[in-house]
Amino acid sequence: QVQLVESGGGLVQAGGSLRLSCAASGSTFSSYVMGWFRQAPGKEREFVAAISWTGSSTVYADSVKGRFTISRDNAKNTVYLQMDSLKPEDTAVYSCAAAPRSGGVRPTAYDYWGQGTRVTVSS
Asked: Is the dihedral of CA 102, 104, 112, 108 positive or negative?
C-alpha cells in the first residue's frame, strides 16, 4: 500500500511559479505510475500530468503542456510538479495519485490518493 501527502501549494500571482511535492510512504513506490490531478471549485476533477515507473515517460494535459513539469525521485519516494507561468485558471486543489500499473488520464485507474494541496493564482 501507498500513503501520499502533498505539499507546496499556496497563493501566487499570475506568471509566477510553484513546486508541488508528493511524499509517498511504502516500499513499492518505484513500481507505481504517479499522476497529478486538480479540481477547481464547482468543476470535475481533471487530469494534469503522469509519469512512468522510471520517469522516462511523461504525459501532460494540453492545458498545462509547456508550463508544468512532472518528475520523480524514487530514492526519496517523492514526485514533483513544477508549475511555471501560472494562470488564474490553474487555481484548484491539486492531488497526487498512484496507479499500480497503467495510469493514464482517468482517475479510476489510480488506487491511492493524497488529500490535496490548494493552489490559488491571483490576477
From this structure: negative
Rounded CA-CA distance 21/89 in Å is: 20
pLDDT for 2 equals 85
Helix (H) or strand (E) holding 51: strand 46-51
For residue 57, what is its C-alpha cell?
Answer: 515517460
Spell out the residues 6+ positions from residue 111 whose beta carbon is closer than 8 angstroms to its own: 2, 97, 98, 99, 100
Return d(Cα 49, Cα 38) in angstroms, integer.
Answer: 10
pLDDT (tens digit per residue) in 38-73: 999 999 999 999 998 788 899 999 999 999 999 999
Tens of pLDDT along 85-108?
Answer: 999 999 999 999 999 877 789 999
Would you say how long the chain is, in residues?
123
pLDDT value at residue 27: 64
SS3 76: helix
- DSSP assignment letter at 45: -
Q: What is the Cα–Cα distance from 27 to 109, expressed in whole angstroms?
A: 20
